[in-house]
Amino acid sequence: MGDLLNNDEIQTINIEETLQNSYLDYSMSVIVGRALPDVRDGLKPVHRRILYAMDKLNLSHGAKFKKSARIVGDVIGQYHPHGDTAVYDALVRMAQDFSMRMQLVDGQGNFGSVDGDSAAAMRYTEARMTKYAGELLKDLDKNTVNMIDNYDGTTKEPDVMPTRAPNLLINGSSGIAVGMATNIPPHNPTEIMNGLKALLKNPDIELSEIMRHIKAPDFPTGGIIFGKKGIMDAYETGRGRIKVRAKTHIEKKGHRDIIIIDELPYQVNKARLIENIANLVKDKMIDGVSEIRDESDRDGMRVVIELKKDAMSEIVLNNLFKQTSMQTTFGIIMLSILNQEPRIFGIITILKHFINHRKTIIIRRTIFDLEKAKARAHILEGLKKALDIIDQIIKVIKASKNVEEARDNLVSEFEFSQIQAQSIVDMRLGKLTGLEREKIENELLELLTLIEYLESILKSEEILHGIINDEFDELLVTYTDARRTEIEDDYDDIDIEDLIPNEPMVVTITHRGYIKRVPLASYEKQKRGGKGKIAVTTYEDDFIERFFTCNTHDTLLFVTDRGQLHWLKVYKIPEGSRIAKGKAVVNLLNLMADEKIRSIIPTTDFSEEKGLVFFTQKGIVKRTNLSEFSNIRSNGVRAIVLDDDDALITAKIADQDIKYLFIVTKLAQCIKFDIEKTREQGRSTRGVRGIKFKHEDDEVIDANIIASDEQEILIVAEKGIGKRTDAGEYRLTNRGGSGVIAMKMTAKTGKYIVGCLMVDEGMDMMALTKAGKMIRVDMQTISKSSRNTSGVYIVKGDDVASVSRCPKQPIDDEEEDENLLLDPSELV
């Protein structure tokens, strides 16, 4: 024990440094010896060892199959000291036509399926190499690559394969090492060979020229690649992302559409995809699907998705792309090993390294063949010389005691080399005939010609390039194949709008800031005077402030009382029932504390031919080009600069057809002036005066835009009284004046105006009361009156909070019109 504790034998080490070195050794072992492919042959060590073991078993293309277990046993026993399952899994993948663009193993038996079925046990399956795999091993016996010791030093294995085919790009590779990963997609062999020929011809070729030949990855399972940006990024830098989508078509079955999936993205499990779609349909995440079944057979893939009668195939299909693996993103990382070092390469660099590899292989092969030819020529020269003096040679041989003495005597007396003398001693008597002599001379002549040619290869790079080019041509003829994966030049991300039907909606927002959307069809049409239906359930201290109608695909511009503008799509507003409270708008928009939304404007585009007109409580008007609001930040942008005591009331979109602006005040004052009186201003400006109030306590309550004097204006007072009046009856004045009377105010009308609308034959009016009731009215049934009158009752029994227009809806034939008509005595 004392000897074991001898201080002289104890070494002090730094544990941090030791762990770093040990982990570095481990990680480099995984990187170089297990997980990543070599840039030259595109093989990981396990794949290279499987092919080498099969070569040693004489399992070339055309040979008899051997049990996979025998192959795996040789691999793990001699070259790859890892688990047999891992080796067999690698062998299985090399035999799968849905995993490899060009299979390396010809399998017999169950080698798995695209549904994710496992291969049969290795004792049941058989394998041999494919013809393409033979291209990877060609000339292996001609000292073309370095042979290194196997794991226990008992035999040799190739450091790299002398492949004639650029396997790294043709079959791709994927693997996770330590701190890095590779994911190289497979490519079309014809395109790769054409790209190599172009690079060989022009070493300074540009990426754009290469991509005329190598258009994109080509997956064995087909599919569709969208967009070239990710491809160009990957080919230039070694990193990129491409979107791959299933190939589908639509068939008809009576009045229903049927979606047929013909091809899937690379490495997508068909059975798992079908199960995922079924679960999404069950959970109502995908609507419109009635049945899913798999009709795939030996002739190809066919997954059938039957739709319901009212389902739109485009919407369902886009939903499937959005929510399932029918569309995937393939992240390209072209990482591989060069000189025992992992590096990320662009595609041109990979092609150059392969060409350099081929040069090395051809040079080493040429040297091997040259040495062999020279050795044979040397022997033939000795035999030819011996035939000329055969009698003397026979005499010397007969006088010798044994073979060794005869060989030495020939060397000393006739100046033969040891090799030549040995071949002469071993020569049979049949070589003395005239015919055999002629054969020796002819063979020698052929060898001298071959030697001259082989030496020319080593001296001329042009001849070397010609040989490489000829090899590429041979591979093109042998392995030419049509592209399987289609390419679409431009790709736009699937907009969620494609997943949602474009339907009319009613959007409501309460005083406390709760917003929701409800399908317009949820509200029944009534005539004026009706009592309406509950549109929303509010808190006791809450009420509906505003509502409007729009479509789900429209863009909403939220303009707040502080002059900020926010951007939102209608479909992003939560859909609720007719009596639901909705969702707090602060959860949808990035609003400041106490900031209130004053105007919500639906629009379909941000055309420069349109303007956004702002109206403030103090009578300020401002017009800004709509295009200035196309790029809204998450916290919005300032749309108008407001005075400290002012607030925004409303905003409207005005196109080139708009002639006038119309402002109405709370105390029934109104003004109409030419829109050109307000020039377009930038976002961060104040605007100009639109109206001058006659009373200090007056303020702007609503405003509108007018295209012509023939249009009609509907003005509604707080007690539900309203009237239609031609816009021409409102005198055109200068901007900033006091205007004229908008409506004759009485006790029945109430003190205040609540809003004004432009009458449209294709639109109804919807009025919202402070109690939360909503009523739809055909504006054509409202009496037409002159400017200085009051009108008729539109809503009875409750004060009106706001009014808006909505699309017409046919009147139910069963409605009793006479019960909804007003008595003439109700006219004010």
UniProtKB/TrEMBL annotation:
Gene3D superfamilies in the cross-refs: 3.30.1360.40, DNA gyrase/topoisomerase IV, subunit A, C-terminal, Topoisomerase II, domain 5, Topoisomerase, domain 3
Cited SUPFAM superfamilies: GyrA/ParC C-terminal domain-like, Type II DNA topoisomerase
Intracellular or extracellular location(s): Cytoplasm
InterPro entries on file: GyrA, GyrA/parC_rep, Gyrase/topoIV_suA_C, Topo_IIA-like_dom_sf, Topo_IIA_A/C_ab, Topo_IIA_A_a_sf, Topo_IIA_dom_A, Type_II_DNA_Topoisomerases
GO cellular component term of the entry, any: chromosome
Active-site residues per Swiss-Prot or TrEMBL entry: Y124
Domain called Topo IIA-type catalytic: residue spans: 36-499
GO biological process: DNA topological change; DNA-templated DNA replication
GO molecular function, one term: ATP binding
UniProt KW keywords: ATP-binding, Cytoplasm, DNA-binding, Isomerase, Nucleotide-binding, Topoisomerase
Reaction equation(s) it catalyzes: ATP-dependent breakage, passage and rejoining of double-stranded DNA
Domain of life (superkingdom): Bacteria
Region named Disordered: 807-828
Chief localisation class: cytoplasm
EC number of the protein: 5.6.2.2
Function text: A type II topoisomerase that negatively supercoils closed circular double-stranded (ds) DNA in an ATP-dependent manner to modulate DNA topology and maintain chromosomes in an underwound state. Negative supercoiling favors strand separation, and DNA replication, transcription, recombination and repair, all of which involve strand separation. Also able to catalyze the interconversion of other topological isomers of dsDNA rings, including catenanes and knotted rings. Type II topoisomerases break and join 2 DNA strands simultaneously in an ATP-dependent manner.
Misc. remarks from the entry: Few gyrases are as efficient as E.coli at forming negative supercoils. Not all organisms have 2 type II topoisomerases; in organisms with a single type II topoisomerase this enzyme also has to decatenate newly replicated chromosomes.
Subunit structure: Heterotetramer composed of ParC and ParE. Heterotetramer, composed of two GyrA and two GyrB chains. In the heterotetramer, GyrA contains the active site tyrosine that forms a transient covalent intermediate with DNA, while GyrB binds cofactors and catalyzes ATP hydrolysis.
Family: Belongs to the type II topoisomerase GyrA/ParC subunit family.
PANTHER family hit by this protein: DNA GYRASE SUBUNIT A, CHLOROPLASTIC_MITOCHONDRIAL (PTHR43493:SF5), DNA GYRASE/TOPOISOMERASE SUBUNIT A (PTHR43493)
Protein name: DNA gyrase subunit A
Organism: Candidatus Sulfurimonas baltica
